[in-house]
């Protein structure tokens, strides 16, 4: 219980000064880590090879992780102390106001919060009503019980003293509750012995952060504009001081790192800071889904530590649903040409994503930079792609479309070029997600080109319905990719009805003939896919580029043709066309006739 003297005499400015001291340590660790990563390690790996260089890089990596740990933990301490000071300010003001009233009325306030008042009022039987001591009550019920008795007391000081005592009790009760919340959070903030920062260490940090967030949410997190547009968030971030940005990166890296409209460099720093915490938390969870996500994050973390060319930017991670990961090859804020590719069926945060799916974005970035060095390519796993038969519905695309629309708006808001060239890419079911995003209120006005590869349909029947001129919609559809020939609802229903009718009339032979006739009647132009018009069809009206046919899925029992579009080793024509479109050079594609 916080006592009256403690709350009265508490020097909140000293608490804030202490918080600033911890913030200074956090900021220094943040700066030191950046220097180690971007100056020392970068130069070492560029100029030195061999075992000695590898050992030095390992030791510097440990130093970087130590700085990261100090930055995060000291940031949490700073948030706790500043949050405590800010939240205690209100009950302290109420207490001081009550004490001032008591002094004005010449009442005596005791250290236990009770209030003594003198005799006063009209005489009764020749005597003035005696003074007494009021004890406070907080809460509606407590006040309701005590207030009537004070009001009926013939001494007019009784009601005044009771009100003051109640105000004191309420202030002390609130201060005690606040103190308890922060005390529990601060008690967690202890470092283990040793220099190694392990997944167990980061699991502990994740718990620390959760405790501090629980105590300090109203103070700091409410200022983060999560409900605003990406452009408005960019204005908010630009208006923060460097110290404020570092504080948010330390205390809320998970929120800042996944917020569209925050610059790519800051998102990358936030997510690299949050990743160890997320990995630590997942490592403590024994279920299969958590371990699958953890394996994917470990692979991504390994690639981040090794470095890449173009450089990687971690624009989003999370353990929601099947996992979240958004990775850019090249800086999407400084590059004039930026693409964001949405993967499709069976994609989730696992080792395969960290291998094959990321490679597609990297291959695109490398190819585009050969045409225009100011190019970046992103893989966006910001939704739950269907893992199996769910592909037969459009629900996952509808759920993911608003997030992709927001992400593309964020790319436009943070890009430093006057007129950036943005390309939306959808592969497989991801093409339906892209198409659905274009149909959201407001559409995607900042997108210049759309690429659809291996598409089962995009939810619209004409290229121009996607919000860009039809000559800015490009389609790759391999001859042996069965997904691009997924039958339409009409042909399936027609085939079933025709087959049943044919069997009734002509037996098995009639069933086969009837199914074929019914399917043709269900899709007269043979240009419908499961989710609308075939994007490669004449009636859809997009520009089709040539792809390798790929192996026959029936003879070879493989869907390889569905996966080769981005791979320059297996489909050079398709990969080159995608790179040319992303780099703003559509004339460099290899065209192919529509179906």
Structural account:
The protein has 595 residues and is an alpha/beta fold. Among the domains are: 4-188, no CATH class; 333-345 and 360-372 and 383-486 and 531-595, 3-Layer(aba) Sandwich (Rossmann fold), CATH 3.40.50; 489-522, no CATH class. 54% of the residues lie in helices and 10% in strands. It contains 16 helices and 13 strands. Strands 4-5-7-6-8-9-10-13 form an 8-stranded mixed β-sheet, with helices on both faces. A 3-stranded antiparallel β-sheet has the order 1-2-3. Strand 1 and strand 2 form a beta hairpin. Helix 4 packs antiparallel against helix 5 (156-188) and helix 13 packs across helix 14 (429-438). The longest helix is centred in the N-terminal third of the chain and has 54 residues, at 51-104. The chain is elongated and about 115 Å long. The N and C termini lie far apart (78 Å). Mean pLDDT is 86; it is low at 489-504 and 508-523.
């Amino acid at each position: 219980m916080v006592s009256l003297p403690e709350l009265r005499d508490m020097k909140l400015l000293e608490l804030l000064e202490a918080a600033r001291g911890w913030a200074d340590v956090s900021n220094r660790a943040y700066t030191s880590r950046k220097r180690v990563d971007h100056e020392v390690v970068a130069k070492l790996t560029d100029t030195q090879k061999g075992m000695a260089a590898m050992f030095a890089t390992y030791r510097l990596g440990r130093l970087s992780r130590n700085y990261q740990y100090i930055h995060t933990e000291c940031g949490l301490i700073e948030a706790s102390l500043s949050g405590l000071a800010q939240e205690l300010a209100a009950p302290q003001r109420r207490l001081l106001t009550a004490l001032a009233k008591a002094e004005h009325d010449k009442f005596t306030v005791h250290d236990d919060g009770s209030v003594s008042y003198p005799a006063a009022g009209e005489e009764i039987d020749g005597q003035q009503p005696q003074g007494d001591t009021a004890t406070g009550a907080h809460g509606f019920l407590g006040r309701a019980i005590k207030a009537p008795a004070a009001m009926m007391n013939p001494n007019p000081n009784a009601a005044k003293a009771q009100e003051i005592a109640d105000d004191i009790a309420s202030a002390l009760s609130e201060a005690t509750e606040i103190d308890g919340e922060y005390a529990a959070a601060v008690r967690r903030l202890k470092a283990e012995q040793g220099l190694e920062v392990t997944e167990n260490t980061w699991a502990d940090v994740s718990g620390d952060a959760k405790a501090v967030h629980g105590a300090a949410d109203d103070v700091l997190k409410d200022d983060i504009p999560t409900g605003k547009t990406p452009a408005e968030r960019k204005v908010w971030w630009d208006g923060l001081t460097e110290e404020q940005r570092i504080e948010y990166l330390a205390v809320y890296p998970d929120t800042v790192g996944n917020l569209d409209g925050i610059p790519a460099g800051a998102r990358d720093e936030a997510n690299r800071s949050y990743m160890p915490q997320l990995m630590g938390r997942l490592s403590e969870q024994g279920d299969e889904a958590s371990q699958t996500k953890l394996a994917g994050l470990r692979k991504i973390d390994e690639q981040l530590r090794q470095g890449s060319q173009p450089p990687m930017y971690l624009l989003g991670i999370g353990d929601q649903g099947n996992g979240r990961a958004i990775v850019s090859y090249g800086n999407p804020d400084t590059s004039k040409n930026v693409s964001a590719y949405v993967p499709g069926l069976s994609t989730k945060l696992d080792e395969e994503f960290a291998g094959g799916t990321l490679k597609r974005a990297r291959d695109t970035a490398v190819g585009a930079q050969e045409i225009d060095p100011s190019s970046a390519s992103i893989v966006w796993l910001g939704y739950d792609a269907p893992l199996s038969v769910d592909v037969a519905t459009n629900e996952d695309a509808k759920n993911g479309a608003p997030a992709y629309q927001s992400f593309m708006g964020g790319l436009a808001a943070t890009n430093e070029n006057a007129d950036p060239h943005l390309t939306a890419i959808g592969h497989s079911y991801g093409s339906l997600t892209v198409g659905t995003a274009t149909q959201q209120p407001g559409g995607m006005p900042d997108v210049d080109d759309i690429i659809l590869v291996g598409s089962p349909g995009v939810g619209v029947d004409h290229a121009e319905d996607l919000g860009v001129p039809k000559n800015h919609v490009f389609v790759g559809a391999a001859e042996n990719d069965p997904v691009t020939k997924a039958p339409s609802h009409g042909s399936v229903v027609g085939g079933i009805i025709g087959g049943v009718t044919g069997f009734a009339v002509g037996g098995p032979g009639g069933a086969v003939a009837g199914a074929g006739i019914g399917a043709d009647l269900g899709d007269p132009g043979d240009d419908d896919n499961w989710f609308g018009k075939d994007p490669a069809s004449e009636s859809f009206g997009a520009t089709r580029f040539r792809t390798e046919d790929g192996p026959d899925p029936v003879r070879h029992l493989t869907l390889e043709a569905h996966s080769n579009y981005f791979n320059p080793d297996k489909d050079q024509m398709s990969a080159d066309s995608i790179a040319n479109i992303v780099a703003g050079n559509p004339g460099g594609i290899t065209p192919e006739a529509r179906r």
